């Protein structure tokens, strides 16, 4: 009888240990997958991260006009932060809001984009904001941030020079 109990205890112990190993392996695999996904998301965010200055705008109302004509005082600029926050200016007013990276370089600028409401004569501030809200995708090409709406390039930025 004692031998049967000992044998049964040994079999149960081996069974529990082997189940525990399988569970640990599954947990390790899941942890590695989560870590890999997080790395991919960080790479995507890091590509956008930083300050960008407008180089060109292709939108109705901007045809045939140089950036300096559309924005005589200061060029629009954006800063993307790691936490999904966005701020900058539209050539006149300060802007702040959120953005979301999506699969395959998809980009959504938050609907709740807020800004100051100063009057700036001769500045196409509303044009910039409307165009920015239409963006669906981004690419980094030759160190420039290219924003598209559908298949049309609408805004192009260069990395802003930092002063330290």
From TrEMBL:
The record's InterPro entries line, in alphabetical order, gives: DUF306_Meta_HslJ, HslJ-like_sf, Hsp_HslJ-like
Question: Which Gene3D superfamilies does UniProt cross-reference here?
Answer: 2.40.128.270
What the entry lists under Pfam families is as follows: META
Instruction: Report domain DUF306 positions.
Output: 48-158
* PANTHER family, A to Z: HEAT SHOCK PROTEIN HSLJ (PTHR35535)
Record's protein name:
META domain-containing protein
